[in-house]
Specification:
The protein is built from ten helices and ten strands. About 45% of the residues are buried. It folds into two domains: about 90 residues, Phosphorylase Kinase, domain 1; about 190 residues, Aminoglycoside 3'-phosphotransferase, Chain: A, domain 2 (Alpha-Beta Complex), CATH 3.90.1200. The model has no long low-confidence stretch (mean pLDDT about 95). α6 crosses α9 and α7 crosses α10. Helix content is about 40%, strand content about 15%.
Length: about 300
């Protein structure tokens, strides 16, 4: 993970204020062997705050009730997935509990050295191969236990791109300086593509440049699995457009077995993610998010694999 501080946008207020002093108290009271380790703020997302604990660990602490279920899901299912994935993922080392006036469970996970891909992009060739390897390993049919686990249900990602069309149109209205006409055409093609009708596959659900770590252009880790679900893998294909330049897109497509309809839906999700990142950047998260959103949209419109 990167040490660059990041704050959630003002329109996503915390339900519980999570600061360094609180996290230090939680760590010291529940894990005495870590009591002397320094605690440093790293980032604040929509649902969780992240603090580095010593050199080897990171605390992921929900700032909203919604984040509690997401962390419980990670703690339950990442150990199942990790062994099959060719990249480090933040499997929980310790599970914290409510205390010190804080109401919810929280996690201690490994600290991964690296930079966020939103600041340090993947190398085109090596990144294409590595990302394809991750997606191929991840996008396997989920086991029956996952399909009946309410934690795996995801009302934000396990929907059709048509269900997100109205939200994207609102973003177009808010940011008319983006190339709305060609993006609207990509979105329309995605909405018209056949729906996913195969097995429900494991899907990260939030594979954008601020949930991927790089080191010297290589894929170092994939983090923040709170949106993990079993269903249509198309949202993850948006990550191909977000993380790699257009010249690398055919290389990824050749290494995956997803059909044209899935890629068409994935391109629609790239419009959604690109607009969301751009909007978040302009609404307080910072210029790096705006830039990542613009790159996603530019990469998509220049890609030879989009519909």
């Amino acid at each position: 993970m990167s040490d660059g501080p990041q704050r959630a946008p003002d329109h996503v207020p915390a339900e519980v204020v999570v600061d360094r002093e609180l996290v230090a108290r939680l760590v010291a009271s529940q894990f005495p062997d870590l009591a002397g380790e320094p605690v440093r703020f790293v980032a604040e997302g929509w649902d969780n705050a992240v603090f580095r604990v010593g050199e080897a660990l990171a605390a992921r602490v929900p700032r909203r009730a919604l984040g509690v279920e997401w962390l419980e899901k990670e703690a339950r299912w990442l150990p199942v997935l990790a062994g099959a994935l060719p990249v480090p993922v933040p499997v929980a080392v310790h599970r914290g509990r409510a205390g010190e006036g804080y109401p919810w469970p929280w996690l201690l996970v490994p600290w991964f050295e690296g930079d966020l891909a939103g600041h340090a992009p993947l190398d085109a060739e090596e990144g294409a191969d590595a990302l394809a390897d991750v997606l191929r390993a991840l996008h396997q049919p989920a086991p029956d236990q996952a399909l009946v686990d309410p934690l795996v249900a995801n009302p934000f990602r396990d929907v059709t791109i048509a269900d997100r069309r109205e939200a994207v149109e609102r973003l177009f209205d808010r940011h008319p300086d983006v190339p709305v006409a060609p993006l609207r055409a990509v979105l329309a093609a995605a909405c018209e593509a056949p729906a996913h009708d195969g097995p429900r596959r494991w899907t990260h659900g939030d594979l954008h440049p601020f949930n991927v770590l790089t080191r010297s252009g290589r894929l170092a880790a994939v983090i923040d699995w709170g949106d993990l679900y079993a269903g249509d893998p198309a949202p993850d294909l948006a990550g191909v457009f977000a993380l790699l330049p257009p010249a690398a897109h055919p290389r990824v497509r050749e290494r995956l077995d997803h059909d044209s309809a899935t890629w068409a839906r994935g391109a629609g999700w790239a419009v959604f993610f690109g607009m969301m990142l751009l909007d978040a950047g302009r609404r307080g998260v910072g210029p790096a998010f705006e830039a990542a959103g613009r790159r996603t949209l530019d990469h998509l419109l220049a890609s030879s694999i989009r519909p």
